[in-house]
């Protein structure tokens, strides 16, 4: 399942994977990334044990397109809040409910901390749903964020950058909040079971009401439970459709809890920008290119 593949740190990519084909890769929720020329790298790092209840992973993104055209990176974001250290623009990004499209230019290196679903509320002290589809300066939540930005981005090497970010966040660890665990468990149930497609089913499984679940998700997760369910069912569909073995769309729609194939197709295209058949065809081309050894080289 794709949910499992997202829980582990990515190994450092080789030159070939850092400069891969314009294809789909769900590990980071990526829908599209422009092909070379240029260098791009995205690496994840596991947090230390004392931050693990709050931070899912740190990620470092670097690119260098100084002598090349800008590159487009298109992502279907996970339901998570990120603290991002970037030169002169360190910010906190709430849950982004639409596709997130970025144009990368020149050369840069940034570091992000991805919070577990539900885990940002104790730092923020307000409903995380207020941050949906927007971002705010990191300094609005974390005192000393400007100094931390200089320390993180001025560090030499990935390990030193992560250590600087860790030292900053370790000083901010909030008091225990049992609702963080409730929210994280609720999202984990959605990830774990592809057949879970309705808010009512989730509420019954968690022995709560739909109304209580709505309040918990707005306050702690940052998006509605219905939206989170649809997002993870879309991730499941992405993985199945990108598999070169293919998947019957009618069967897939039924497995993911849709009334019929038309509803599934409409939802999928609205969220990803691709029709399911188009996405499946791209996955087949990607697998064929891999088998023929035609991955682009730097």
Write the layout of secondary structure elements.
Blueprint: H1 2-5, H2 15-18, E1 30-33, E2 39-45, E3 55-64, E4 71-75, E5 82-85, E6 91-93, E7 100-104, E8 107-115, H3 121-124, E9 135-137, H4 145-154, H5 158-170, H6 178-192, H7 199-205, H8 210-221, H9 225-242, H10 249-255, H11 261-272, H12 276-291
Antiparallel strand pairs: 1-4, 2-3, 3-8, 4-7, 5-6, 5-8, 6-9
What is shown here, in short?
With 298 residues, the chain is of the alpha+beta class.
Give a quick set of tags describing it.
298 residues, alpha+beta, Arc Repressor Mutant, subunit A, 2 domains, three-stranded antiparallel beta sheet, 41% helix, 17% strand, disordered N terminus, disordered C terminus
Q: Can you walk me through this structure?
A:
- It is a single chain.
- This protein has 12 helices and 9 strands.
- The protein has 298 residues and is α+β, with helices and mostly antiparallel strands.
- The chain folds into 2 domains: 2-170, no CATH class; 178-289, Homeodomain-like (Arc Repressor Mutant, subunit A, Orthogonal Bundle), CATH 1.10.10.60.
- The longest helix is centred in the last third of the chain and has 18 residues, at 225-242.
- The chain is flat and about 55 Å long.
């Amino acid at each position: 399942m794709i949910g499992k593949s997202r829980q582990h740190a990515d190994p450092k990519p080789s030159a070939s994977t850092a400069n891969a084909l314009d294809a789909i890769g769900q590990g980071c929720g990526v829908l599209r990334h422009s092909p070379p020329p240029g260098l791009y790298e995205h690496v994840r790092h596991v947090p230390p044990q004392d931050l693990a209840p709050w931070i899912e992973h740190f990620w470092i993104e670097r690119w260098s397109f100084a002598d090349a055209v800008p590159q487009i990176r298109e992502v279907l974001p996970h339901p998570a809040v990120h603290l991002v250290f970037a030169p002169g623009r360190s910010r906190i990004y709430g849950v982004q409910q639409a596709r997130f499209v970025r144009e990368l230019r020149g050369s840069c290196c940034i570091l992000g901390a991805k919070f577990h679903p539900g885990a940002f509320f104790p730092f923020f002290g307000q409903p995380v749903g207020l941050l949906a589809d927007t971002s705010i300066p990191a300094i609005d939540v974390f005192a000393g964020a400007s100094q931390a930005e200089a320390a993180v981005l001025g560090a030499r090497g990935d390990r030193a950058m992560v250590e600087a970010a860790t030292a900053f966040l370790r000083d901010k660890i909030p008091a225990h909040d049992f609702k963080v665990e409730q929210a994280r468990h609720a999202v984990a149930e959605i990830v774990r079971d592809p057949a879970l497609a309705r808010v009512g089913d989730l509420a019954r499984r968690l022995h709560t009401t739909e109304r209580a679940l709505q309040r918990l998700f707005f306050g702690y997760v940052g998006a509605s439970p219905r939206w989170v369910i649809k997002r993870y069912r879309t991730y499941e569909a992405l993985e199945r459709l990108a598999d070169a073995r293919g998947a019957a769309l009618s069967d897939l729609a039924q497995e993911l809890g849709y009334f019929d194939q038309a509803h599934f197709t409409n939802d999928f295209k609205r969220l990803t920008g691709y029709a399911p058949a188009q996405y499946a065809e791209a996955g087949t081309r990607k697998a064929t290119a891999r088998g023929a050894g035609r991955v682009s080289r730097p």
